[in-house]
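**User:** Once you have settled down, spend some time on the protein underneath, comparing sequence with structure tokens, and judge whether sequence predicts the tokens.
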Amino acid sequence: MAMKPKKADAAVEDGDEGEAAAGGSKKKIMLIAGAAALVIAGGGGWYFVMKPRAEARNAELSQAPTPVTFLDLPEMTVNLSVGQDRAQYLRVRVALEVADAKTADQIKPVMPRVIDAFQLYLREVRPSDIEGSAGIFRLRDELTRRVNTAVHPARVNAVLFREIIVQ
């Protein structure tokens, strides 16, 4: 008789394992389905967030560059502020970048004012002020500010150096 309870216990245990196995497979299926739903939701969210950025980037790349007009100034040679040492000279050739030909036509009548602003500023520059690329960038920014003051209400986008020589 001791054997029968063991068989009954074994049958009950086998039934429990079958039910546990069925429950375990349901849990695995639910876990896999949940993970798949998260991946799909995450991918969809990423797509809707990144798609507008990609479209904006493509729109920027597809736009044609805006045409600009360049206005050349005459070559200028000025003596630099060096104190009592021997004289040093700066020779520059400059072009002004403007938005369009209409703006260039507005600037041409006041060109003597622009050249005067350049000459006055360049005469106060020391050779150490224009050493290296940082000095040239500061010079360009200051000349752009001064030319915009001289040609107001017209606007110059940039002052471009064609030639810079310090002698």
